[in-house]
Write a structure and sequence with these properties.
alpha/beta, Rossmann fold, four-stranded antiparallel β-sheet
Length: 276
């Protein structure tokens, strides 16, 4: 294993429990800087919880978490959060109703949900406008946040996150609620973020194999009870045996043009009886 200094995220035997229920069980996983990684697994296996632990919004019951070479709990979390960003598609971002897409992007400089009490400089406004253009929202700068589509909001949030040039990007179901063209456009944007010498490390939580970026080289597959089923290179983790073990359902993965797809055999739940 490489040293912590070269790691974007290092989880050492991380366990998380809530009200006597084990959500994550002894997770040991490392993501290197500038690496594209993914966390996959069935509903309720602790994927989102693990991402929030990585962002410092939840604390493990046991174990150690290192982010960008710094141990959580031994280094100011507010300073770490200036170097990373968590973007959650299902989260409610209660921005002021009067805020435009540009206002939302610019609020990223201050880490606030309003700019009513902030005084952005002309340089900050220019940078926020450029960031929106970079994520494909040119011409939408003055549109109210509340009137943006789901896909446009996700793009605005990414533009907001990129203002501080994060070294680690954490995405929780980034394409949730998007139709197929919007999903593919978003995935193309995330792929674009992987280019350049200063590309951040990226960890994506998803339920769907087809949403994995082709550059994904490190996959953590979780099963029920928040246990690790497999971890490592995508080709060795995404197998029929591992997926079937994790989901408790026959799943056959396929790969085409660098993208993974999954097929699950249709069958009723065991307790359902056919109606005559």
């Amino acid at each position: 294993m490489k040293s912590s200094a070269s790691s974007a995220l290092e989880l050492n035997h991380v366990t998380f429990s809530h009200q006597d229920t084990v959500i994550l069980s002894a997770i040991h996983w490392t993501v290197q800087r500038q690496q594209t990684a993914a966390i996959i697994g069935p509903n309720g296996c602790g994927k989102s919880t693990l991402l929030r632990i990585a962002a410092g919004y939840l604390w493990p019951t046991r174990g150690e978490v290192k982010v960008l070479g710094k141990t959580l709990g031994a280094y100011p979390i507010n300073r770490l959060r200036q170097r990373m960003a968590l973007i959650e598609a299902a989260a409610i971002y209660p921005f002021d109703q009067a805020m435009t897409a540009l206002d939302v992007a610019c609020s990223g400089f201050f880490g606030t949900l309003t700019i009513a009490y902030c005084k952005p400089t002309l340089r900050q406004w220019k940078a926020a406008r450029q960031s929106l253009q970079d994520v494909g929202l040119a011409g939408r700068e003055n549109q109210l946040w509340s009137t943006l589509s789901t896909g446009q909001r996700m793009r605005a949030l990414i533009g907001r996150a990129l203002l501080n040039r994060p070294e680690l990007l954490l995405f929780d179901e980034p394409s949730a609620g998007l139709d197929l063209p919007a999903r593919e456009t978003l995935l193309a944007l995330l792929t674009q973020l992987r280019t350049g010498p200063d590309a951040p490390a990226m960890i994506v939580v998803t339920h769907h194999l087809e949403e994995l970026l082709p550059q994904t080289s490190n996959v953590l597959l979780l099963g029920t009870g928040g246990r690790i089923v497999a971890a490592g290179p995508a080709a060795s983790v995404i197998t029929a045996k591992n997926l079937t073990n994790a989901y408790g359902w026959p799943i056959a993965p396929r790969r085409r043009h660098g993208r993974y797809f999954a097929h699950a055999r249709p069958q009723p739940w065991p307790h359902l009886q056919p109606r005559l």
